Amino acid sequence: MSVVDKDALAPATPAPSPAPAAAISPARRLLLDSRWRWWELLFWVACAASFWVFPKKLMLISEIFILGLLALSIDLVLGFAGLVTLGQGAFFGIGAYAAGLMAKAGMGVAPLSDPLLGLAVAGLAAGAVGFATSFLVLRGSDLTRLMVTLGVALIFEEMVIKFKDITGGSDGLQGVMSSPVLGVWSFDLFGRTAFWYSLILTFLIFLFCRRLVNSNYGLSLLAIKGNPLRARTIGMPVNARLVSIYTIAAAIAGISGGMLTQTTQFVSPDMAAFHRSADALLILIFGGSGFLYGGLVGAVAFRVMQDFLGNITPQYWLFYVGLVLVLLVLFVRGGIIGMLMAASEKLTSRRNDQTGGRP
Known about the structure:
Blueprint lengths: L5 H4 L16 H8 L4 H16 L4 H21 L9 H19 L8 H23 L4 H21 L1 H4 L24 H22 L2 H11 L1 H6 L4 H27 L9 H14 L5 H20 L4 H15 L3 H21 L4
């Protein structure tokens, strides 16, 4: 009689499954997302190198930086918070006139005409108006918000014309003269100081915005944009977040307006006109909303296109800009940045298919 091994009759113990990979914490994920990519460094190096590549276009490039900063302010409220706005041109004009009045009061003598102090006043003035009007923006749907922001822009545009004793009316603000930057670099006709002034300030503000969106605060904005009702249900202060980001964006728009005043030494009602808001929104659509770089890239594309087509056909250049915009909306999602990202993903996918996923 054979002896049966009891261990052989026992059910086989399943092999232990491999331990799951450690989940990435939200803090670690934010850190990974905030890392600088090679193309970001290349972008800013190319911006600085344009000083030597295009020495006769420095004023145009300075304006591109300023318009890109204005579009960046719209990207904060539209691309990350989901607030549709047509009122950034009003904040741009407020900053322009605030900096212009400071420079005119100082008559080129520091400290009143100091450019950095003027930018601080421009940002505070635009931010204060943005905070005061943000509570109106919170009411209603997207269409209501769009009309409210448009109304704010039109009201300020009319105020610029009406209070001509302060603003100069339709003739603009005369006698704007900023003192040298840090008491050393004066604004010249060739735009050399304006170039570095606008580039450095745009880069510093971009760093602030980049850090802002790659934080818990930025994640909360994206959650509100995705589903504000759910965000409010889990205890997120939705209204406070929207008020704060609208105020910050208004201050940035005001700083960009102040920069344009200081680099051109002139303020006109055109700086507060409605088309400023429309152009900035158009620039953001060109570049791509929700990428931060969309406003900067869109400003380059829009301003270069405007300059090129304006020389060829001054009367009908807007037709071709509109045609490009329609083609972008129909065939490209996410503007220029979205098109470049889609092309990069296709190349990466094709490379992985060829190599079998091996690096």
